[in-house]
From TrEMBL:
It comes from Pygocentrus nattereri. GO terms for molecular function: 1,4-alpha-glucan branching enzyme activity; cation binding; hydrolase activity, hydrolyzing O-glycosyl compounds. This is 1,4-alpha-glucan branching enzyme. Its EC number is 2.4.1.18. Keywords: Glycosyltransferase, Transferase. Residues 163-527 form the Glycosyl hydrolase family 13 catalytic domain. The keyword Transferase applies. It holds the Pfam family CBM_48. The active site is at D310, E363. SMART domains: Aamy. It catalyses: Transfers a segment of a (1->4)-alpha-D-glucan chain to a primary hydroxy group in a similar glucan chain. Pathway: Glycan biosynthesis.
Amino acid sequence: IYRLFQKQLSLLEEAEAGFDQFTRSYRSFGAHRQPDNSLVFKEWAPAAEALFLTGDFNGWDKFSHPYKKKEFGKWELHIPPKEDKSPAVAHNSKLKVVVHTKEGERLYRISPWATYVTKVNTSVVYDWVFWDPPQPYMHKHPRPRKPRSLRIYESHVGIASPEGKIASYSNFTHNVLPRIKDLGYNCIQLMAIMEHAYYASFGYQVTSFFAASSRYGTPDELKELIDVAHSMGIIVLLDVVHSHASKNTEDGLNQFDGSDSCFFHGGQRGEHPLWDSRLFNYSSWEVLRFLLSNLRWWMEEYRFDGFRFDGITSMLYHHHGVGFSGDYSEYFGLQVDEDSLVYLMLANHILHTVYEDCITIAEDVSGMPTLCRPVQEGGCGFDYRLAMAIPDKWIQILKEFKDEDWDMGNIVHTLTNRRYGENCIAYAESHDQALVGDKSLAFWLMDKEMYTNMSTLIPMNPIIDRGIQLHKMIRLLTHGLGGEGYLNFMGNEFGHPEWLDFPRVGNNESYHYARRQFNLVDMDHLRYCQLYAFDRDMNRTEDKYGWLAAPPAFVSTKHEGDKVIAFERANVIFIFNFHPTNSYSSYRVGVGPSGKYKIKLDSDEIQYGGHGRLDHNTEFFTESVPFNDRSNSMQVQNIQIQKMRL
């Protein structure tokens, strides 16, 4: 595989003006205004018989502006400026590519390189809009440096409002960014930015790869969002979908030139059996140009700081992860799609070569070895992978086990079972767990009680008490033990109730569940602000001590009878009591470094919805008493019960 990568990279470096020019092809393909205000349009449509450009500028004449056929399936059109020297195609003009096929069909298409597409309410198809503002947005703030510890706030712009509507980039900039900053997250992962015709696809059925979704606002408003985030020291990652594409033809890539292939494999190999989408042909020179240029477009035009690559498992294997057994033979056998793997290696190599602080994260459920090792070692080159087993484990525990049956060893194993030297992003829940058909952790814990019993003006009932305490403990344990980065889906930090469901026919096109009720945090008489405060202080404590950037934790205690977990990371001692009924007046804990310890974060504090049973003035001194494979130990007083038996 590495030799294949080297060969492909060498071809890229020899291509045209080198791989830098090749991966910046967005500067020549699509539509571009030249310094003299002439316009150049360029497409790749190898199966087409003829191409024409039509639109507002020529009264939608289908034949007045033909493209000229070039070699290797490329087509070009040059349009001189008007007599007054202004561009022939004005900013915000609508355009279409008219494709004539060898079979005599006439097709109307959007350029695959279109940077802005819109849809009027009465239409089901998007329109290509020529975006060429006279005064484009200019970024004011430099990119922050790559953070030592990555704390990610997974976000969706459209649902980032309590109102039942599609929220805007501007709303996110002015109302959500300050909350993210306050919470202590230093990274935002933006979902559903690449244009997608179907809102309920959560952005994973992409139709226009170079266009920022217009349903939230303009490209300049997205640029402002990222710029303001940078001013706050927050980096922004794009949830990029290069694993597949929408089957849409009139406003997508599918059958752009009239053929079954073009950007995709032809026949069955080009179809995803479960996602009902098209699969890229990563061995194609022009597909590599398109996808690699797409990455650099988002990095340079919008100044994103990196990517979370979606659907990597589907790319890595010919079976797309369907029926994956986990046997090592599947990692290195004929099931592996070498073309996809080489593409991912090229993408990571180029991104990390050109952009020193670029961060790439792989969403892979299979556990492919070396995915997060450098390309020079033969790895795939990602910086992090998502620890996808962790949220599944928490949901399984809450659904299937009584409190007294929680297996401390199994929990610790799940949180620590990751490949050495390959960084993981840990999370207790993401957008996947919030979707309709599942429930957030808060809703699994407290369910309908959240509708009537979250007020601070009434005593907590046992269900709310248990739910609030466990919500905090699950998140802190995952944060401290689960990886080298941490992720939270927007709203879940404060125990957002219910689930997430986009407007669709099945729910009468309702936006009721396609929103985030940040207003709940702002009501002091509701307990959501207590969970918010704990999440904020958990992140701030990590920022001070840096356990995510530290080597993996040493787990000294995972006691099944006591239901206690204790571990040490970055010179911080974490102690959790998961027993449903037992508190411990004195409990010995193994410690590495000797000295004096004090309480720095306590989930039982009243401000976090706890009961305030610990004295924060207490100092804990180590003794030279080896315990649980640690050279020192200390007696910790008042390890309290944190939840109630139901």
